[in-house]
Every structure is written in structure tokens, then in C-alpha cells.
Amino acid sequence: MQYKIGETKHDDAVVTKCIFKKPILSVALDNGEIHVLNVEHEETMVLEGHASAVWALESDGGRIASGDSGDSPEIRIWNLMQGGGHRATIRDLRLLLDGNTLVSASKDGVINVWSLDKSECIQELSAHEGAVRCLGVDQSRHLLVSGSSDRTVRVWNIERGFHCERVLRGHAGAVFCLGVQSEQGVVASGGEKGMLMLWNIEDG
């Protein structure tokens, strides 16, 4: 079986190192690129950042450490998110108070919950009926807020496993942005037709 490295900065790039932690094959090149191949799904991601040839590489399947050959050699650590990947543009990201949980919103209509320690998606929230365009967090009440093209704002209880507690309706079009004021428990949502709405996060 043969795998072809995707397009690179230089057609004559040399593969200097490869690490295989199934299903992830990490490949270093002498043009400073690192190519990450998922051999099961035939997906490729290119990591760019090194200014010189990458000659050292190590990976545990979720993270990659790479070292280059520049005048001031650098070691870079890359965190690869595995599992439950989005199928369309990612529109927003929020890091929760524990510092280990990242939430992503996507045009595919799904909200993904990621563990940074495990480097994987641990939960998918799919209640919205359209693209999820924005996120907000009330850290003091442990609530996640999401706005969507389906014209709704949803409130999720983080401590109850991201249970959707309420759906706020009133927008005449897609919701594009959210602002959360934790002290007073107020959510501002902005969307199409110049509409801005204020909500009480606990009872709508």
C-alpha cells in the first residue's frame, strides 16, 4: 500500500522522519512542514510553523513534538483533536473554567465538547436544526449558551452533562453573536434584521 504526501511548498521535499501511532501517521519534511495522515479515513492535515527542516519527531497519537534545524532551533508541541470531528466550518470556540474542556460550534449544526487532556471529542450536542454560529459561557452558573441559524438561543447545563435546559425563541433570523453578563445572568444575542435581544439566562 502506498500513501502519497499531499501538496507541499516544494515538489522535491524530502521525508526526514515518520512516526506511526495507528491510525495516525505523522511525517516530517525538510521544508518545515509536518503532514498528519489518518490512514483509516484517508484524511490529511498539514502543520506549518517551522521555518527550517524538521528532523526530529515524536508522537503519542494525540500530540506531536517536532524539532527543526534553524539557526535558533525550535521544539514545537502540537495537540491533535481526534474523534467526532466537524463536517463543516467551525464558527466559534469556548474554553471552560476547568481549563481542560473546549467547546466548538460548527456550521454542521453540531456542538462538540473536547477533552484537551485526552485530545478527543467526548460529547456531541445536536439539538440545533441549523448552523451553530456562536457560543457564550456563564462560568458562575455553569451554563453554555449557543446561537444558531435556526433562529434560537439554547442554554445548556454543563454540570448536568450539557443537558439542554431551555430554548429561547424570538429572533426573526439567524443568531450571529452572543454576549454573557454573568453577574446579572443576562445574555445578549444579535442577529439578522438588526435584531438585538436581552434574555434572563435562568428563565428566558
Comma- or semicolon-separated keywords:
204 residues; mainly beta; Thrombin, subunit H; Methylamine Dehydrogenase, Chain H; four-stranded antiparallel β-sheet
Q: Would you identify the CATH H-level superfamily of the largest domain? A: YVTN repeat-like/Quinoprotein amine dehydrogenase
Kindly provide the name of the CATH class of the largest domain.
Mainly Beta
The total count of strands amounts to 18
- The average pLDDT value, as a whole number, equals 88
How is the largest sheet built, in terms of strand order?
1-2-3-4
Secondary-structure arrangement, i.e. CATH architecture of the largest domain: 7 Propeller
Q: What's the tally of helices?
A: 0
Report the uncertain regions.
none
Tell me about the biggest sheet? 4 strands, antiparallel
Give the % helix.
under 10%
Approximate strand percentage? over 45%
Protein name: Putative E3 ubiquitin ligase complex SCF subunit sconB
GO molecular function: ligase activity
Organism: Beauveria bassiana
Keywords: Ligase, Repeat, WD repeat
